[in-house]
From TrEMBL:
Protein name: 2Fe-2S iron-sulfur cluster binding domain-containing protein
Naturally occurring in which organism (per UniProt): Paraburkholderia susongensis
Lineage, top ranks: Bacteria, Pseudomonadati, Pseudomonadota, Betaproteobacteria, Burkholderiales
Family annotation (SUPFAM superfamilies): 2Fe-2S ferredoxin-like
Keywords: Oxidoreductase
GO molecular function, one term: oxidoreductase activity
InterPro entries, per database record: 2Fe-2S-bd_N (IPR042204), 2Fe-2S_ferredoxin-like_sf (IPR036010)
């Protein structure tokens, strides 16, 4: 995942964090954030690449509609990052192309 920070927490928000692992690197993120918000605050701005054309994608709607925030969470592909709350120890990976059929 590429890291360029465009987002930050609002002033006065809780400073408590949990540690998640993003593409193998530990990152401290706000404890009440969803995965998409946490990754954006951490400077991640590419969450996946499309199966056709490998175009980069990042969250757009932040409410479960657009599916541009799909990531792998704890080994499960195609999870909507905007709909899942962070948890200490969570492992998040960027998605590249279509998921494997099982
Ligand atoms: S950002 Fe649109 S579904 Fe998650």
């Amino acid at each position: 995942m590429q890291n360029v920070s465009l987002f930050s927490q609002i002033a006065g928000a809780s400073s408590r964090t949990v540690r998640i692992v993003v593409d193998g690197s530990p990152v401290d993120v706000p404890e009440h954030a969803n995965v998409a918000a946490a990754l954006l605050c951490a400077g991640v701005n590419v969450f996946r690449h499309t199966p056709v054309g490998a175009a980069p994608r990042a969250p757009y709607c932040m409410m479960g509609v657009c599916f541009d925030c799909l990531v792998e969470i704890d080994g499960l592909p195609n999870q909507q990052a905007c709909m899942v709350r962070v948890r200490d120890g969570m492992k998040v990976k960027a998605m590249a192309g279509a998921r494997a059929l099982v």
